[in-house]
Specification:
The chain is mainly alpha-helical and 254 residues long. It has 8 helices and no strands.
Length: 254
Amino acid sequence: MSEWLVLSLAMAAACAVVLTIVVINNRRIPEDDDPSETPDVIEYMTMMIGVIYAIVLGLAIAGVWEARGAAQETVRQEAQAMHEISARAEVYPQEVRSRIRADVDAYVSYVVHDEWTYMAEKGELSDEGTALLERVRRSVTDYQPANDFEGQAYQPLVDQVAAADDARGARGQNAGATMPGVVWFGLIIGALVTVGLIFTLQIRRTGRELLLAGLFSVLIAFLLFLIWDFDAPFGRGISATAAPFTDLFPQISR
């Protein structure tokens, strides 16, 4: 199901539920009821709870957005490390250089075309990707430099392999959902309480009041969807991309 379809259904459902409750509740109100009798304390508590929930929503959105940015940064670091391995292998003999670059290209191609989908579905790294990175490591570390010039390039190459491995591990840690279940529980209960409190203000069936009630419920649904969409940095619509790999290794996208 499309992300936008999920969003549209969620907002439509929230709006429909709220408006239905308003209409049904309004039919039960006697004709002589005076909406101005709403105690001031209820209006104050409704406002305070709304403000508190807005702060919680803002913190949740900031948290998942920061997690997405961190996930994208790990991708950039991994891609840059693999690019450095391929570039620094220039000092090695043709056979060794070709083997290292072929292994690097194989790993990058697998990450972009296969592992990205695997992460989105499984929320973890694949064994095949780990094996391909280990092949790159073996290609770099198994070669014995033939002279001082090659020896000076050996350790930086090993360091770049370690950097790529570290960035890959961080990518794996960010592959799943970042928001704990207890936080989602609080967000959903808070949304129900916040929306529910608007019924204590004796909303009538006028077009203006129904419009405001519907827009309020739609806004809450949209913000919750936004948090849910950001919650999986590699798995949903607004997610981290493999652009750093394709930018540095344009040949793999051909």
